[in-house]
Amino acid sequence: MQPPATTRFTLGLPVLLLVRWVTAAAAGSVVGATSSGREIHALSLSYNFNITSQARPGQPWCEIQGLVDGNQFLSYDCRSKEVQPVGPLGMKLRDTAFWERQKEILEDLVEELRKKLLDIRTGIFTKSHPLTLQGRLMYECGPDRQPRGSWQFAFNEQITHRFDPEIRKWTVVHPGGQQFQGTLDKDGELTGFLMRISNGDCKGWLQQVLEHWDEMLEKTGPVTAAATDMAAGGYLRCGITWGSIS
Question: Which InterPro entries match (predicted)?
Answer without folding.
Answer: MHC_class-I_related (IPR050208), MHC_I-like_Ag-recog (IPR011161), MHC_I-like_Ag-recog_sf (IPR037055), MHC_I/II-like_Ag-recog (IPR011162)
